[in-house]
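sorry for the late reply, my laptop died twice this morning and i had to redo everyting from scratch. anyway the thing you sent over, i finally got around to it. pasting the sequence first so we're on the same page, its 130 residues, then the predicted structure underneath. double check i copied it right bc i was rushing
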Amino acid sequence: MADIPNISEAETLVMELLWKTAPLSAGEIARALAPSTNWAENTVRTLVTRLHEKGALTASKNADGVRIFQPSIERQNFVEAESDSFLKRIFQGAAKPLLVHFATHSELTPDEVEELKSLLEKSQKKSQKP
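ok and here's the structure:
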C-alpha cells in the first residue's frame, strides 16, 4: 500500500465527496458541501490545496480551463491506514480490546452479531493454516 498522507477530519469530508463524485472543481466541491458544513468557498479551496500538496488529490484542467480535482489515493487504502492508526493509538495495536469495546458499547443487530461471528471464524481458520 502506498503511503497515505495524514488527512484531517475536515479534509476527509472533501475526500469522501470526491471518492463519490470526481472530478470536481473547488467551486463545485464548496457548493456540494455547503448544506452540511456551511463552509465558505475559501475554506474549501484551502482544504483542497492542502490535500493536493499532501498528494491526496491530483489536479488537471477541464475543457473550460477550470482546475478540477480527483483523489490520487483509493478510499479502501485510506480506510485501512486510518483503521491501523486508530488501533495502534487507542488500543496499543491489540484487536481484542477494540472488539470487546464495540461489542459492549454498540447496539448490534442479530444479523450483525452473526456476521461478526462468521468473520471471526474465518480469521481463526486463516491463522491456523500452516
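Helices lie at 9-20, 26-37, 41-54, 75-91, 95-105, 110-128.
thats about all i looked at so far, will dig more tmrw
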